[in-house]
Amino acid sequence: MAQPRASTDEENAPLLDNPNSSPSESSSPLKAIFSPSRPLTLLEKVLGGLAVLLLLLASIFIGLFAGAEGLLKKERNGHGHGHGGKTEYATSTFTATTTSYGTTTVIPAPGPTGKPDSKLCLTPECVILSSSILQSLNQSVDPCEDFYEFATGGWQASHSIPADRGLYGAFNEVNDNNKNILIKVLDSISSDKPSKDASADEKNLAKLKAVYNSCIDIEHLNEVGRKPLIQLTDHIVDIFGEFDVDSLSSSDLLDESAEWKGTFDESYTVPADLVASAEEAEQLRQSKKTGGVRWEVPSSRAEGVQEFYEYRPNEEREERITKTLAWLHSRGVQGLVNFEIEGDAGGEDSQVQSLWLYQAFGGLPSKEYYEEKPILDLYQSVVAGILTDIAEHTSIRERKDKRDLLSDLEVAVELGQEDAKGLIEELLEAAEEEDNWPWPWPGSERNGSKDGNGKHDGGKTSKEPTDERMEKLAAKVVHFERELMRAGADPEYLFNPHYAYNPYSTKTVGKMLPFLDIPTYLSTFSPRSYPVNITVTHPPYLKSVTNLIDKTPDHVLSGYFVTRLALTYASALGPKVTIRQEKKRLDDVLKGIKKGTEENRQDVCLNWVDEIVGFIAGREFVREAFSPEAKAEGEHIINSIVKAFHEKLPHIPWMDAESARAAQKKAEAIIPKVGYPLYPNTTNPESLENWYGRLDIKENDFFGNVLGSTLLEESRTWLGLGRKRNRDSWEMYPQSELGNLHQRDWDEADTALAVNAYYSPPDGEIVFPAGILQPPFYSQAWPAHLRYGAFGAVAAHELTHAFDNSGSQYDERGRLRDWWTKQTVKDFEERAQCVARQYSKYYVFDGEGKKVYVNGNLTNGEDIADSGLAQAFLAWQNSVSSSSSKGSEKLPGLDFSDEQLFFLAFARVWAQLTRPATAVSRVRTDPHSPPYWRATGTLKNLGAFHEAFGCKVGSPMNPPKKDQCELW
């Protein structure tokens, strides 16, 4: 264990006299008692003796208290004495409940370094901060042995993981505080409707309140029931065709349910590898926009255009498919193929919004789930339950429609139209022949289902109960969806911008998708410019989906469309509505939630507020928790870090001069954004009123609010096609990480108000919402070293992403280009692999205490970005040297140097507790290393930290140089 350093504090007078010193050199407070300059009276002697006794007793009690407190902290943190005179420390990490480290017997933490400064910050903010830091510490641990435990051990001992979560940390604390701010805002808004002459602010607040109220009133939602969704499913049936028909023997090829039927039971748990595949897919999807993953450059492009000899054209069917897909896609429902509007990163201008064509995504998290038999069994039963509920309701509606027709005809007879009498008799005769009224049912000879060639199947209405019919249909729908997923590319290819960038002319794509009329489809969205090209992310998928559609009967396609719609909007229904309950039954199993667990409706509705009127909520959050001064200071910190990095680039030893100049050019082009977007202008109520002007919000129509918001956002997105992106727009709302990413899977429980920041490679932006500029990341009232240590580390992290193994593939204009020399790329890769090897030695523990190692290649981009802490430290030092003020503000009760506090501020943001199951899941899928290693791994490589805490070479926090990695 590292030995404590000798104190470098300079003190004016020692507590006890040096026996060799002269009277002029030192003076003791006790000297007046034991060596008085005059004889003492009896009273003075008695009082002096009592004073000494009290002083000794106080010292004893203070020592006992400190010792007891230290022992208590050890017990609470799981400390215990091991064999061989060593002490084992249990340290909670991002991905494990406890992580054990062997070390020598605890030695008191080293004292402060540097000359004490008399300038003490005693503002309420500084006092609160000082208290928070003190409570976070575990000073019984040597920071050179385990800095994470030293910096966060107190926090870990005083916190626990909520029962409904897999982890809890500083990020969650900020998140919860941000939610509380919004709840207070919502509670303060009047429920009265704004008057006609109300201000823009009043109208905006009314919409904000109405969205929340419409969501939180679950009694009304349950009372409304399935009706709003049925109105949409009826429209699918009207434009495409019925799904409630006989199962046909000719379509048995779409029924392999015997393979998985009966394999699910209530004790089933989703395997860890499946959970990992789903999380990996989502991480890769996000990384395409925000970087952080090393995308390999393929040696050859994906397959090109192919002929479709097997496809049999059917114009009437193609027209129905085109209308149905356009109608669904305009409402945010994915199916068969999906179109996205994204920047043209492979073109000359990455800001021009182009049309991209993706494969379909299904109701399960990733394609691997479609090979797991118990999940397919569960999924089929959920689909059957949804289709049954819809079919039964639709039947009632159609019976009513037929009865209304008879009533109309009877009225016609009364009016003297005798010809109608004969028609009524024919209807009644037909009713006697049909067991199921009304007549004729789809599937009958007159109105039968069509096969892939558009021919009627000639079947008759089934006499089976509805649930049995829908169970058979669900099996075919699930099988069809599984075949779609099998035809798609794996996520590492689908979201790889090198593999996925395959532009074709729009006319050519029309030939590749003969079942879809592209011009008619596009006219639905009325884009301002017709796309010349469409980027196809995985060309082979187009042939597969075409041939699959060709052999699939209409009623199966109709069932597929209805299912996709229902699963997309189920979360907008009341909790007791059958369709919603079926979706929740699936979600609970997939997420490992205990059956019967109630949702936190407040969190659900806060997320919907974000989704529907997120910028209005953002304005109120900014007004409550952010200031123009904080925005300016945040921008100053970021710009100073960019400047420090820019100046450092020519001195990077492994980067040649040509590459260094190109890197400087990219650093100069970085656009920092802090606090809130200006498109719409979050601080301007009139701008927000215009932004949501076309959105009609009703307090008693939550489903309508969700639908209207989706229609508006889809319309807004398509209007940007062919135009340059507005650089004042963001991918986040000020209070959270959601926003214009707009990947609506309606999974509100997992995404509400998550705190984050991001770097966008195609846009060359680093973005920091107001939601993350909160304690323990930032406060304008804090001393500079703490602002730079916490928020500066976040800013430097995002900046470094522009130069990590993903961001380095984009030039200063956000284009996928090679802009480094080959030698620099080689030297970069060598150092990047050093980091990968280093982090691959780190691990967490599973529930059985076994080590599960970090995948250093998966986390490489984020680990490299974390090393940006060095730039934050350099920027802070530059700010100190250039500042006109003398010294810095000290915090009460904290005897640490500014340098030490800088690193304490950095480590504190990674304080976290994690359950073993969550630990393993995260370490297998998350491109971020566990927080324990994000803190300690970064500091092990940083000389400034070693110097600040006097860590000797060879100590755990200062390993030998051969075991350290330095890139930027």
Automatic annotation (TrEMBL):
One of its GO terms (molecular function) is metal ion binding. The keyword Hydrolase applies. InterPro entries: MetalloPept_cat_dom_sf, Peptidase_M13, Peptidase_M13_C, Peptidase_M13_dom_2, Peptidase_M13_N. It comes from the Eukaryota. GO terms for cellular component: plasma membrane. Residues 1-30, 432-468 are annotated as: Disordered. Residues 756-965 form the Peptidase M13 C-terminal domain. Residues 447-468 have a biased composition (Basic and acidic residues). The keyword Protease applies. Residues 13-30 have a biased composition (Low complexity). The chain crosses the membrane at residues 46-66. Its cofactor is Zn(2+). Residues 143-261, 467-677 form the Peptidase M13 N-terminal domain. Keywords: Hydrolase, Membrane, Metal-binding, Metalloprotease, Protease, Transmembrane, Transmembrane helix, Zinc. GO terms for biological process: protein processing. Belongs to the peptidase M13 family. This is Endothelin-converting enzyme. It comes from Kwoniella bestiolae CBS 10118.
